[in-house]
Specification:
This protein has 196 residues and is α+β, with helices and mostly antiparallel strands. Helices cover 40% and strands 19% of the residues. The chain has one domain: L-fuculose-1-phosphate Aldolase. The chain is globular. It binds zinc ion (ZN).
Length: 196
């Protein structure tokens, strides 16, 4: 396996961990697409401490190689790669985005930077959100139009041309949600139509 793939995945896994963007240590997952191959975090590997044996290679399309030890969400990653222009995906259990998704159907940024980047952050509500067929079917369609979305009560999914871009979207969404949370706790207005 290419050393630079392991290096990139390990680097952004550490960023997620160190920034508190993925609260429980072994959760979340990140992946990279190279042609028809897919490189994804191993099931149960620590996000903030990935080495070569924690990166699993498999196919973008159905392919049994590596699947058993790949992330629980390998099916969702495949579906996103097959249906969008994504070349990298970051999925993290982002505390502010998860919390806000439990009380709102969609999230509209109220801060300037958030508004500059995104008109809204879609929230996908499904019956079963972890590694489910429903997420595989519905999330890619949303991600055709948006670089990031939140699966309700579960976490943020973001994609881009590389891990840096996908990671950036995760941080933008978390920043938007965190500011709404902070303003709400200061007693301020947090519905975009009231703020602007
Ligand atoms: Zn997850």
């Amino acid at each position: 396996m290419d050393e630079d793939i392991v290096e990139e995945m390990s680097k952004y896994g550490k960023f997620l961990e160190n920034r508190g963007l993925n609260l429980s240590s072994h959760s979340g997952n990140i992946s990279i697409r190279r042609g028809e191959r897919l490189y994804i975090k191993r099931r149960g590997a620590m996000m903030g401490d990935m080495s070569e044996e924690d990166v699993v290679e498999t196919g973008v399309k159905e392919d049994d190689s590596g699947v058993i030890i790949a992330s629980t969400e390998v099916g969702v990653h495949r579906a996103i790669y097959q249906n969008t222009s994504a070349l990298a995906i970051v999925h993290a259990h982002t505390p502010y985005a998860i919390s806000l998704s439990l009380v709102r159907d969609e999230i509209v940024p109220i801060d300037d930077e958030g508004r500059y980047h995104l008109k809204k952050v879609p929230v996908l509500e499904v019956e079963e959100s972890i590694g489910s067929d429903e997420v595989e079917e519905r999330l890619p369609e949303i991600l055709q139009d948006y670089n990031a979305a939140i699966v309700k009560g579960h976490g943020t999914f973001a994609h881009g041309e590389n891990l840096e871009e996908a990671y950036n979207w995760v941080t933008v969404v978390e920043s938007i949600c965190r500011i709404i949370y902070l303003v709400e706790n200061l007693g301020g207005e947090t519905r975009a139509e009231e703020v602007w």
